[in-house]
Amino acid sequence: ISGIKNVVSLFTAVLTDHKVLFLSQSYTRLTDACHGLTALLYPLRYSYVYIPILPISLLEVLNTPTPFLAGIHSSICPERSDLLDVIVADLDGGNIIVPECISLPCMMDQLFNRTLKALTMIIKPELLTADDAFPAPPKKPKPMDRK
Questions:
Q1: DSSP state of 90
Q2: All structural domains of the chain with their residue ranges
Q3: CA-based nearest residue to 5, from 96, 125, 105
Q4: Where is the signal peptide, in residue numbers (predicted)?
């Protein structure tokens, strides 16, 4: 998915118990997207149906009333009219389709801007020192969870 705003939208969708379906022609991309989105939830865990690569034999899962996070190969994607309450993220095209019946809550501007900045620094850490004449030496990574 291109754009941090799309990632924040998908993050919001997962946090608010919506159905999210990734589409791609790459199985690796599908798996990475599903794992990446659940990693953003840390320390929370995704507790609904989670199928990074949904086989064609299980397409009926897309019609269940329970939330899910799934990935499906673009060649076997059902018609959009069958996905009335599913947020579809096209990984190859870089866009998200949110059906009209779904209203994703908006983050407050201050929280959204802080989240956007934090995610930008994760994805492109070189932006932190882009304007420095003499950049500081790189910081050593610190482990996130200490026991």
A1: E
A2: 4-97
A3: 96
A4: none
Q: What tokens were used for 112?
A: 């959204």
Instruction: Please tell me whether the overall predicted TM-score, pTM, comes out greater than 0.70 for this model.
Output: yes
Q: 73-92, pLDDT tens digit by residue? A: 999 877 766 788 999 999 99
Domain 4-97 belongs to what architecture? 3-Layer(aba) Sandwich (3.40)
CA angle 49, 50, 51 (to 5 degrees): 120
Judge contact between 20 and 70, C-beta under 8 A: yes
The tokens describing 57, both together, are 């034999």
Query: What Cα–Cα distance (Å) separates residue 1 from each residue in 37, 65, 89, 136?
Result: 11, 25, 7, 31
Cα–Cα distance measured from residue 46 to residue 39, given in angstroms and rounded to the nearest whole number: 9
What pLDDT, in 10s, does the model give residues 47-75?
999 999 999 999 999 999 999 999 999 99
The predicted pLDDT at position 130 comes to: 67
Q: How far apart are CA 136 and CA 68, in angstroms?
A: 43
